[in-house]
Please model this.
Amino acid sequence: MKLWGGRFTKETNQLVHNFNASISFDQKFYAQDIRGSIAHVTMLAKQGILTEAERDAIIDGLSSIQNDIESGALIIDGSSEDIHSFVESHLIDRIGDVGKKLHTGRSRNDQVALDMKLYTRDEIGETDALLVKLLHTLLKLMEENLDTYMPGFTHLQKAQPVTLAHHLGAYFEMFCRDRGRLADIRRRMNTCPLGAGALAGTTYPLDRDYTASLLGFDGPTGNSMDSVSDRDYLIEFLSALATIMMHLSRFCEEIILWNSNEYRFVELDDSYSTGSSIMPQKKNPDIAELIRGKTGRVYGALQSLLVTMKGLPLAYNKDMQEDKELSFDAMDTVKGCLALFEGMLSTMKFNATVMEASAKKGFTNATDAADYLVNHGVPFRDAHGMVGQLVLMCIERNIALDDLPLEDYRAVSPVFGPDIYEAISLKTCVEKRVTAGAPGRQSMENAIRQYRTYLEQ
Model:
């Protein structure tokens, strides 16, 4: 059944029908379509536009359709143009002519705008729940690794010592910001387009505030033309999803490096790794690599919608049907990546001994050796040069600053005393960094308390 056709004298060309139809992908929001229709007819009966008996018959019919779709008794096929016509035609088949009153005071334009908003809002909630689960895993790992020393990097060069808890805390902050973006998008998008009609409202005495309240919106949209042509909320959501993927991809890149033979910082669980078809020794970080790769896929969905919307005049245009396919794919991709990443992270083993040795061999305590000299009256620029000489000695002997004999320290500067070794121990280097946000234990314990409170809220 088509929702239009009265002024047409020819059947639609089959290729045109196939090209025009959206049911292959918009069937994903059958539940949102039915929920919106139930709210719409409830409002129509309240306003006296439908009788209570008509309302009840339509709601019973719609509920039975949803139950049958979910049980598998009713299969959504490609014979209908879209999910709206599929639901309406089956409703009429089940309850007769009263089903034809479902569309009173409503256009397919405001109907699809509502469905997309409801679907996006639901997806925001599901994505946020996965982020919360990931944050709980990160917090647990942080609590377990307050004293796991490792090198911090700049330019992929070992820079200064930090702890694994501190490193993981950086990602905790990123994913917290992602949650904030989702909450902000949900708040801004939470107005109901139903009642906007095709673009200019309707002559029926609709109660748009009532419909909005039934569907959990803060109120109706403010302009009927904008109501049916707005996809800002979807662009914002895709942008937030792209940012989530960027954060996951950065984390995956580090895990891929850490998993390499050169680093050996982590060991991936067998259940989140794969092997090679020819090299029996291989244990590949394929999940991390795939998440990194799928980031481009989500970026593509955002770019596609931006390009689709950039030249559209008001109000609705058929181009806007292109908002769904790639968006649905991006939403599913991000949820899948979040779930897999959390599983990979929660089963990963961290090699604390290797991490600590890497921090020492990388001279991450060189700055602290320079600070030791400064604290004994040596100008920093001179101290910087002296420690550079010490590092060069260590490189030539393949040892760490911690292993350099005291006489070599004194040969560079008589200021050095036996307490230099305590001053440059990784524990001292980390613990001295007590400013807010730094890796020192006191600062990290404060951060963990704040993170725990955040998640409990």
About this structure: The mean pLDDT is 94.
